[in-house]
Write a structure and sequence with these properties.
Blueprint: E1 2-7, E2 15-18, E3 30-35, H1 42-65, E4 73-77, E5 112-114, E6 119-126, E7 138-144, E8 152-158, E9 166-173, E10 179-189, E11 195-204
Parallel strand pairs: 5-11
Antiparallel strand pairs: 1-2, 1-3, 4-6, 6-9, 7-8, 7-10, 10-11
Length: 205
């Protein structure tokens, strides 16, 4: 006897399809396969399978929550506060998960020196994609002369269906205001689950 157990992760009671013929529409379900050597052992095996299905759904639910506690935005150039992660080749890098503005609460660090009024290419990575076509989501780059200053908008553009690990480069122009305590802030306003921040400290001469 061969049975496919379709465990609906949305709470619908499990459905059983004999001879392993779950329909394609069940692809959002978790499939657990059960093959019994003797039909007399079917009831016991089915109970074990349902228990395993329940455990696996719990594991999947936890796995889905992990990215919400991981990275989503990495500022590569100029280098972000706190240092760059050791690897940016995998989504959800903890070194870039900052959800409180400004700058995720990271203290200022070494300053990148640039000329006031000059152009610069900002490079950052969408480390984990949160694009939702039903939401108004944006990337915003701003310059602050000092921690209590109002931001100078450098650039802003809408998020799109680009995948995780997409690297963006944007040409900006620094304000014509020399400062020794400035910083750039890049925001990924994903709405859900949060807005993500990354900053780099700048001295304009």
């Amino acid at each position: 006897v061969c049975v496919c157990v379709c465990c609906d992760c949305h709470g619908v009671p499990p459905s059983f399809t004999w001879f392993c013929c779950c329909p394609v529409r069940c692809m959002r379900f978790l499939f657990v396969w059960l093959c019994c050597l003797h039909s007399s052992s079917f009831a016991t095996s089915l109970t074990v399978t349902l228990f395993a299905c329940s455990i696996m759904k719990s594991i999947i639910a936890l796995a889905l929550l992990v990215p919400l506690a991981s990275a989503h935005l990495c500022l590569l150039s100029p280098p972000q506060r706190g240092g760059l992660p050791k690897s940016i080749t995998e989504p959800a890098n903890q070194a870039c998960f900052l959800v409180s503005g400004p700058c995720g609460g990271i203290a200022p660090g070494p300053r990148f020196v640039a000329r006031a009024g000059e152009q610069y290419e900002i490079v950052f990575q969408k480390n984990l994609d949160h694009f939702n076509s039903s939401l108004s989501q944006f990337f915003t780059m701003s310059f602050f002369e000092h921690p209590n200053a109002n931001p100078h908008l450098l650039d802003k553009f809408a998020d799109s269906a680009t995948p995780s690990l997409t690297v963006y480069s944007r040409n900006i122009t620094f304000p014509r205001i020399p400062t020794k305590s400035g910083f750039i802030q890049v925001e990924y306003d994903a709405k859900v689950p949060a807005t993500f921040y990354a900053c780099a400290d700048i001295e304009l001469v």
